[in-house]
Design brief:
- The protein is an alpha+beta fold.
- Helices cover 26% and strands 30% of the residues.
- The strands form 5 sheets. The chain has a 4-stranded mixed β-sheet. The protein has a 3-stranded antiparallel β-sheet with strand order 11-12-13, with no helix packed on it. It has a two-stranded antiparallel ribbon with strand order 1-2.
- The radius of gyration is 20 Å and the shape is globular.
- The N and C termini lie far apart (54 Å).
Length: 200
């Protein structure tokens, strides 16, 4: 089967792309990790509810077979890391090419997300502040539920530490909240001051 492009009919190589295109919701894995005995361990892993804000209405990623996109977050400070793996990638033919996944995600997650996986693992595994880490702001309430202790912290968006946390995690807004959009973090302080952020 051939596939048409601006340059005419492509051969079976292009057909392989279409048969090998991936469902973005199934290819994307989100995990929270913490230090383990030797390497970071996953606390939980799950798929997004939808991915159309990032990958388009069809939620399909063009040009890969066996695609896995892993977005991991350090459980304490939400340091993110993006790792892309696949079995096969379509070789560019004229102007038909596989989607550049990392370039696409750069609009949705901070640059630190694209550090080497080994560097991310090292930071998580040997983070000296993880055990005693606390959210920025003020502790306003503590409570116990089902044998677990919880704290509620409140801070203002003008705090750089708050903005850093929001910047790291707010890709999840677009993956789980219908119509949700990231909060602009480069506004003037007088505009950011209207936002009170609560951490549990």
């Amino acid at each position: 089967m051939g596939v048409r492009s601006d340059h005419g009919t492509l051969t079976s190589a292009a057909a392989d792309v279409f048969s090998g295109s991936c469902n973005a919701n199934e290819a994307l894995y989100i995990s929270f990790v913490q230090a383990g005995q030797e390497t970071p361990v996953k606390l939980s892993t799950f798929h997004p509810k939808f991915t159309y804000p990032i990958f388009g209405e069809e939620e399909c990623i063009f040009g890969y077979q066996g695609l896995n996109i892993n977005i991991r977050f350090a459980a304490h400070d939400l340091l993110p890391n993006v790792a892309v793996k696949y079995d096969k990638k379509f070789k560019t033919v004229h102007d038909t090419e596989a989607l550049d996944i990392e370039d696409t995600l750069r609009a949705w997650t901070p640059e630190v997300s694209f550090e080497a996986t080994a560097e991310f693992n090292h930071k998580v595994q040997y983070a000296t502040t993880a055990k005693d880490w606390r959210p920025p702001g003020e502790l306003i309430e503590s409570y116990t539920s089902r044998g677990r202790n919880f704290e509620i912290w409140c801070a203002n968006m003008t705090d750089p530490a708050v903005r850093q946390l929001i910047d790291r995690i707010q890709i999840l807004v677009s993956l789980f909240i219908e119509g949700g959009t990231p909060i602009p973090l480069d506004d003037h302080d007088w505009s950011l001051a209207r936002w009170q952020v609560f951490f549990v």
